[in-house]
Amino acid sequence: MDQTYEKYFCQACRGERKHIVLFEKKTKGSEDEYNFQWINRFRVIECAGCENISFLKMYGDNFMMREDPDGGMEYYEDAEVYPPYLYQGEELSGIHQVPENIKSIYKETINALKVGSLLLTAAGFRALIEATCNHLKIKHTNLAERIDLLHSNGYLTKAESRRLHSIRFLGNSALHEIQTPKADQLVILLSIVNHLLSNLFISDKLLKSKLDIPLDNYEDFTNVIKRSVRKDMIGTEVELDDLLGKAKRLMSNKDYKSFTASFTEEAVKGAFDFLELSEAGSARFKVLKESKVFSTFDIGL
């Protein structure tokens, strides 16, 4: 077919762009009794700029008329581009770093917003806060107190926790009073949710893969040791400082003493299969085998 250029939303370009119609299939019909005529157009379209492919569904009938720029009347057709897209706001990049149950709720909520299901979107944002509290083991009788505990327990600033209450208010109105929120309100909530999930689950992982940050929890401490054990070390004796290397400077003296004491205590109990304490009371360990730790920090993003 001859190339036709028309403007539609391009998800890749994030805006209205000229598209080429690659293929079109039409279906049409009429009802003589009511002098009613209709047409469906199904199109495969390609962005003339980035070559992103979309599917377009158009519908029109002889009762669909609107005023044209010259003050007259003209026929028009409704157009829907698939897959659905966000008219405003952006999806969170790095969502694969978020815990699975939270990621699942986020995706369902975003899909609801894309298709204009505003009540479901508001409920989804509220559910995201509940799921985040569950993941962080913030337990209490109601969501208001759980949000406050996110601040009290150091996960959020006071200003950030106040913003989450806005999500709670809108979600409660949608669920309990069946009040449909406005689309622009939900776009604001989307930015709040994106900021929350990025701060809690994504930013630190990006930093750990690219930059040095404080080594202040025991799990990360043991992972540093595991990643430092190499195949050529098997059968040799090493000290923890040898395995920690430069990572030692990322710890406070208090954490260093606490973590090394805990690691030694666990080694005595046989908690590790890749090394063992050389002898009681010593600070040396015998490497038994290579240890593998797979995480986002190892493979990069």
Give a summary of the structure in a few sentences.
The protein is of the alpha+beta class and 301 residues long.
Furnish the topology, listing elements before pairings:
Layout: E1 5-10, E2 15-31, E3 36-47, E4 53-61, E5 65-67, E6 73-75, E7 78-82, H1 100-114, H2 118-135, H3 143-152, H4 158-176, H5 183-210, H6 218-228, E8 237-239, H7 240-244, H8 253-268, E9 275-277, E10 284-287, H9 296-299
Antiparallel strand pairs: 1-2, 2-3, 3-4, 4-7, 5-6, 8-10, 9-10
Helix pairs in contact: 1-2, 2-4, 2-5, 3-4, 4-5
Helix amount, in percent? Answer: 40-55%
The N- and C-terminal alpha carbons lie at a distance of 43 Å
Number of helices: 9
Q: What's the CATH C level of the largest domain?
A: Mainly Alpha
The largest sheet has its strands arranged as 1-2-3-4-7
Largest sheet composition: 5 strands, antiparallel
- In the CATH scheme, what's the topology name of the largest domain? Four Helix Bundle (Hemerythrin (Met), subunit A)
Give the overall shape, derived from the CA principal axes.
Answer: elongated
Say how many strands there are.
10
Strand pairing plus helix content: what structural class? Answer: alpha+beta
Number of domains: 3
Work out the strand percent: 15-25%
Q: What is the second-level CATH architecture of the largest domain?
A: Up-down Bundle
Low-pLDDT runs? 294-301
- Whole-number mean pLDDT: 86
**Rg from alpha-carbon coordinates:** 29 Å
The name of the CATH superfamily of the largest domain reads Nucleotidyltransferases  domain 2
Element order: H for helix, E for strand: EEEEEEEHHHHHHEHHEEH
